[in-house]
## 1
Amino acid sequence: MTDRLPHEKGFHVSWDQLHRDARALAWRLQDLSPEGKGWKAIVAITRGGMAPAMIIARELDIRLVDTISVKSYQHQNQSEPQVIKAPDPELVGDGTGILIIDDLVDTGKTLEVVRQHMPNAHVATIYAKPMGKPMVNSYITEVSQDTWIFFPWDMALQYVKPYTGLDD
């Protein structure tokens, strides 16, 4: 048992790292579409899935991109997920040929809701935690359940005082 709060065991992701990891995910996904015909569309889970979805759409030359908005966090506290905005039902159908992209799967509760809308879609995330990993078809990096991931849109560059040597 640790005395640290969840956000104190942090994994900090820079824009460069996110870009590299999203491109790695695209490379992994390029030959996984149904019948090898390419992906019909991407559905990004907002908000975290939007940046990876844009990169993956570019790398795989996918022009149709929609979103599903699922709210499941209030700051750092997870709550019951609810769909705020669903994708175009004519575009996604049952999910066949659809690539669902998110930045992270944590407990998998958000993806449970998303899969209800598109049960045959391929779900891909950049990062996966053990509890949510069974909900994902493809991912790049696994992190421990108690790690808090700080994405580049959550951070700002600032001066950090050295551990030793500079006393003010």
## 2
Amino acid sequence: MAAVDCWFDPSCPYTWVTARWLQEVERVRDVQVRWHVMSLAVLNEGREDDPEGDPEGWLWQPVRVFTLVQEEHGQAALLALYRAYGEAVHGRGEWPDTRDLLRAVGLPEQLADAAHTSAHDELVRASHQAGIELLGTHVGTPVVAVVSGTGTRTAWFGPVLSRVPAGEEAGRLWDGVTLVAGAAGFHELKGRPPEAPRG
């Protein structure tokens, strides 16, 4: 079984589509995804422009909660929270109270308090750095990495998808992405301008 790592910022709608694709890949290929938090807020620190349109720093809030969930409750809890958050925010266009989401997935609602304090920001930064150092700061979310049978680690940004491939279509895309990303000297591949994500 191939170990796949995905670093995601939960606020990104395109990343949600990619995450759902990876969950489809788990069904049709011999892979297991480990989930990690990265942060667009950290990535864009110090920039003169504001590519995410977040002058108030709202993007810090979800990643603080998600990182603390990962630290204190592990992978299964992190994925459960991401599913609940993604289905509500990106799937239905709702903005539920974080406490309600935490309760719904069986986590202590006081974890929501982390959103409004910098007490755990070093955890956010460390998780973010582990993913971004695989590629550099010229990319965004998500970063995906896989270890091949020979022990070689291949990492890439994306793929950026506007819809979720299902079944064998998801598997074929996985095969293609890992083949291209693993080619010596590979740097970049782009498609058409993006459509609105349909997650």
## 3
Amino acid sequence: MSALGIAIGIATMISVIGISASGQEHLLRQLDQLGTNLLRVEPGKALMSDPVKLHPDAALMVRRISGVTGASVTGTVDTSVRRTDRIPKEDTGGLTVQATSLDLLRTLDGRVAAGRWLDEAIARQPAVVLGTVAAQRLGVSRTGVQV
């Protein structure tokens, strides 16, 4: 009986370890497919003080870390985007505005479906790149439309 109990215990341990290793492998495969090579860095939240801010050279510092292939900067802008100036300022359509460095598209390995990404030629001009959902909410179906 004792030997049978030990054999059942060992078999149970082997099956539990095998199942967890199999599950771990499956999880790692899923994470690889999701592109977990993307790391997002943002400032922490202070309880009773001014908002915490990242250092202005944070992206440059991150680029120097071994294994980092690219780093870009984004930040929230206190403004809103509307299709026309006749829409009240309070009606944002759930859209937020972000400013970004020009290399964000390359860092994310993204692509533009229509139009073009921000570049040096238009960097100092008021320009906007809309995502699919934002374009739909604003009723924009082609490039070159003013928002």
